[in-house]
Structure formats: structure tokens, C-alpha cells
Amino acid sequence: MIVGTAGHIDHGKTSLVKALTGVDTDRLKEEKARGISIELGYAYVPLENGDVLGLIDVPGHEKLVHTMTAGASGIDFALLVIAADDGVMPQTREHLAIVELLGIRRGAIAVTKIDRVDATRLREVHEEVAAFVAASVLRDAPVFDTCAPQASDPGVAALDAHLRAQAVAWRMKRDDGLFRLAVDRVFTLAGQGTIVTGTVVAGNVSVGDTMLLAPGNQPVRVRSIHAQNRPAETGRAGQRCALNLAGIEKSAIERGDWIVDPRLSQASERIDATLTLLADAPHALEHWTPLHVHLGTQHQVAHVALLEGDTLGPGQRARVQLVFERPLCAVPGDRFVVRNAQANRTVGGGHVLDPFAPSRKRRTPERLAWLDAMQTWLDTGSLDALFARAPHGLSRALLERLTGMLASALALPPDTRVIERPGHDALLVAGAAWQTLAERLTGALAQYHERAPDELGPDVSRLRRIAAPLVDDVLWRALVDDAAARGALVKRGPWLHLPGHSVTLDAADQALAAALLPQIEAGRFDPPWVRDLANAHHVPEERVRQLLRKLARQGELFQVVHDLFYHQNVIRELASIAATEARKNAGTVAAAPFRDATGLGRKRAIQLLEFFDRVGYTRFHRGLHLLRTDSRWLDPH
Questions:
Q1: In whole numbers, what is the pLDDT of the chain averaged over residues?
Q2: Residue 400 to residues 15, 118, 396, 419: CA-CA distances in angstroms?
Q3: CA distance linking residue 444 with residue 432, whole number of Å
Q4: What is the per-residue DSSP string for 404-462?
Q5: CATH for 268-363 (2.70.70.10, 2.40.30.10, 1.10.8.50, 3.90.700.10)
Q6: Of 252, 350, 257, whose CA–CA distance to 70 is shortest?
Q7: Are 272 and 321 in contact (CB under 8 A)?
Q8: What's the pLDDT score for residue 634?
Q9: What Cα–Cα distance (Å) separates residue 144 from each residue in 94, 112, 260, 573?
Q10: CA 312 to CA 307: how far, in whole Å?
Q11: DSSP state for residue 506 in the 8-state scheme
Q12: Where exactly does CATH 3.40.50.300 map onto the chain?
């Protein structure tokens, strides 16, 4: 368990931590000279069960609230410190507000410096404290009267016993998420190299793991780990850890950075969030109000784009978009605190809904419904609403970034389809969405047949452009394959059609086709042109042209250029030659070797390669034709 102090400057937080642990957390020369904490301090107490209780001592000065927030972002238990002689002071109020905004729900209250007041004053302070916390998360927290400088002080002893009991009973955070550590300190040690410290927000890390510094995505290897101030092979969620990192200099890291699993390294300049303005905030927020945002150990200025209404008044809550000048790392559910533009007052806080927010259409009903679904996930752990707002599926990588967990550890909706994609990613499509897309596919094909009854059907890509242009190509091809396997459609070469649809020729066309097809196939790599066929059979060119186009729609022929048709068997042979040449040349086909292999002229070789580009068998790039390894254009039907 991690305990963090909170309270006004000079209320005895550091002295109390020293009395509890024996550690003076003021390590800087300036801190000792001025008698106040400037930086975060850390101390650890071994427990009887073998665990370690960690304490973070935060500065209380008003100008150092940003440092306090960085420390408070990683604590489990708040220790609110109030001096008996001063009572509740401005930073007491602000620190408690920050504790609540960060979602910290457990804590205790220490009244310090009781040796400086009499019994009457002590009773007054107790009454003041009770009234102060009555409406807060600490309303039922125990209060301990302490005098830290006094040896064997009974109040300190009672507080120590309480913290130890709370730590033993504390349930460790789940560590099945993807690893994230919020960096609050970075330094070097002689013979060791770069060290970062922080609280592990999620997941676990082991010696030898490679993580990323984010933002920036610089790989770092974990040489060694100290967890809760002890050497360890693994650090896990809820622990304070020091990581010795290889492959990076101290100057490349600063407070506010993250050490993360590579799957969580993506940063964003726009974050959609729920923001609550404190009831005592002096002003309402208007669109594009600048605020100081503290998230994890990060501190940046952001402008607030209101997603609901025109203003956000004190005590109100609304969804907003935070627009930053530099990319920031976050995961849905992360809590943050905001201070006013002058950075001298905490005015509110909230939690992240979507860390990858759009710059346009951010207030549309569809977008707000997506944010509703994200909130449902945060509240219930159910992904059903999220998938319901993703009619084209969710990529596995995006789902892991949104949840901070491996997709394999998530409870996906029933009948979810997993469509593998290149690059170790996949599309996850809920069963209901799959069914809707499947019906759209066959419906679009039926409409195509109505509009063009004399055509066999469109190819896969054309049907996608007609029916669902926004659907991922990999998903669309999976839908087509599934429909073909179920008999809902028929694949004939590159063409798709419904089972009951066919293109028929009348008797005259059938007779002419029977004469033309063998002649075209016999022409092999240099078949006769339309005009030559028309002259040879004494029929009009237009009739030959229309018939050959019908035969092409049936898959018997392929039109390479205007009025030049190749037999399907010959095209397959030419495609095989192109594939052979590609294997010789790292997957690429150039015009010259293809010309030599086919015995054709350069112009015809280029025409054939351009035809292969058009139908998706190859892809033209920088003067070369790249063979598409995933092309199924010539799949048998």
C-alpha cells in the first residue's frame, strides 16, 4: 500500500513521516536550509507479513501544488495532516479536494503539534476538522493526535499501528493489465546508469523486459528493479518501483513521462473526458478556456472544448475535450486535476473517456454515444455497448489501448468474430454487427443484379465500394468468404453473384462464342484484336465487342486493353510467369524480364503488367510491379 501525505505548508508532514519511519524525506540542501519540503520524499516500512508500506511525503506550499499532485497520483491511502495551532488552512482544503478528485477513497487524519496548544484549542480543532471533512471521503476517517518530535508519542504509535493494519488488509491492485509506470523522478547512479522511479499504475514488469519511454516511443530495457525499496525480479501494479534502464540517457527522461508496454505507447494531443468543476470554483468555464492539467505525473496546459452546453458552472459536470499543445499519454479511467490559467487554484478534475479524440465532429450524437459506451465500460467492465457503437468492428490494438488490457483477458461479446490482419493485429467484430454486414453484402449484390442483369456480377473490391466503402478490406473479404462458404453467394473467378443469377447468351451468341473462344485461346500471349475477329467471321465489330464483354463478365475472358481480350487460361499462365519473375527479384516484376520471359514486345508486356495492377494481382510502386502476396484474384471458384 502507498500512503501519501496531504496538508498545508509547515503542518509537520515531513516530521510525522520521520516519526513513523525513521526516514527524513527532505533530501535536498535547500529543503533543509528552508525547513520546508520542495520535492517529493519517499520512505518505506517493512511489515510483519513480508510486504512493505510505502509513504510519499508531498510539499505543502501553494506554489508546489503541481508537485503534490504528481505524488498524489500514485497513492492508495491519504494521510491528511492538520496542525493543531493553525487548524484547517488553504492548502489543507486544496489538498483534500485533489485527493477526492483523484478518486482516493481511504485515509486517516493526523492532528500534529498538539504540544503547542491546550485542551480547549485541541477540542476546537477537532470540531473544525469534523466539520471540514463532513461532506468528504474522509468523513469517517479516524483522527490521531500526534506530537512527532516526542519519542514514543502514543498518537504516532496509534497511527503507525493503524497504517500497518490497513496495509496488511489492503488488496493489491490487479496486475493483469498492460504495464504503465508514471515517472516522478529520474537520476543516475555510478556504475548503474539511468534510474527512474514511480508508481506502477497497471500491469507488471520483469528484469530483462523491453518497454517504451512515452511519449517518444524510445525502447528501454529493464536491467534491474527495486520494488517498495527492495531488490526484485518483478514490479507490479500498486508498488513504487525504481527501474534501472539500459539504452537511454537521463537527459532523455523527465517527470511526467511514462514507461509503458509498447502496446500503450501511443500519445495524443486531444483527450475526451468528464470534467467536474468544484463548487467553490470562482468562475464558470467557457469554450476554449485554458487550464493547467495534472494527469499522472504529467503537467500540461490545455484548452477546454465543451462537448455539452456553452458553459460549465461551479459544481457542474460535463463532457469536454482537452486540447494540448504536446502529445500526452493516457488510458480511459485515468483521473486528472485541473487548475486555473494562473496555476494558483485547483478548480476541478475528472477522468479520461477516450484518449484518442477527433478534432472534427466531436459533438455529434454518434460521438457522444461512443463516449457513453466508454463510460459504461468504465462503470461496469462490459464491452457490449462499445461494440454496439462499432458497426465495422474494433481493431485489437485499439481495444487494448482503450482498456489497458490484453484482448485475450477481456470478456468480449458473445459470437465475436476475430479477423486476423497483417502486422499482428486483428479486427474484432461482434456477432450482431457481422450479421448486419453480411445482410448488407447480399442485399447490395441483389441490387447490382437488378441494375445490370446482363452482367455476371462485380468483383470483391467494387462490391465493397458500392455497399460499404468504409469497411476494412480484410473484414470485407472475410465476409465474402463466409458468404461463399454458406452458399449465400457464388465466386466465379474474380466475380461475385447470387446463386440464382447467371448471364445467358442467346443461340446466335452461343454459336459465335463457340467460334471465337478457341481462336482467342489459340492466340496465346498475342490474341487477335476485335477487328481481326470481326473480319475473320464476317460480323460487325460492335457485335463482337459486346459479346466478348459479356464473356468477360462471365469470367471466360479478360480485357487487357480496349478491344484486346485474353482467354482466362492464358491469363493464368501469364500470371504464373509474373509470379516466377517476382520470386527471382524480391517480390517485384519489372517490364524487361517479363517481356523476355513471355517473348512479347515491351509495349504489350507493360500493358499486361498494368492490367495485373488494375485487378489487384500486383501493385505499381516506383517503377516496379510488386506481387501482392495476399491477392486472391486468381483463386479457383
A1: 89
A2: 43, 58, 6, 16
A3: 18
A4: SB-GGGS-PPTT-EEEEETTTEEEEE-HHHHHHHHHHHHHHHHHHHHH-TTS---BHHH
A5: 2.40.30.10
A6: 257
A7: yes
A8: 60
A9: 21, 8, 39, 88
A10: 10
A11: -
A12: 2-169
The architecture in CATH of the region 180-264 reads Beta Barrel (2.40)
- Range list for CATH 2.40.30.10 in the chain: 180-264, 268-363
In this structure, are residues 410 and 424 in contact, taking their beta carbons and an 8 Å threshold? Answer: no
Residue 32 in this model has a pLDDT that exceeds 60 = no
Distance of CA 363 to the CA centre of its chain: 21
Report the 3 state secondary structure along 129-168.
HHHHHCCCCCCCCCEEECCCCCCCCHHHHHHHHHHHHHHH
C-alpha cell at 316: 457542474
Could you report the per-residue pLDDT of 318-348, keeping only the tens digit for each? 999 999 999 999 999 999 999 999 988 999 9
What is residue 630's predicted lDDT score, i.e. its pLDDT? 63
Count Cβ atoms below 10 Å from residue 408 Cβ, excluding itself. Answer: 8
Prior bond to 469 cis, omega within 30? no
Q: What angle do helix axes 473-486 and 431-451 make, rounded to 10 degrees? A: 80
Please count the residues of the chain.
637
How far is Cα 604 from Cα 610, in angstroms, rounded to an integer? 10
Higher per-residue confidence, 555 vs 445: 445
C-alpha cell belonging to residue 9: 505548508
Assigned C-alpha cell, 244? 534501472
Q: How confident is the model at residue 617 (pLDDT cuts 50, 70, 90)?
A: confident
Question: In the predicted model, what is the mean pLDDT of residues 201-218?
Answer: 94
Residue labelled with grid coordinates 478518486: 103
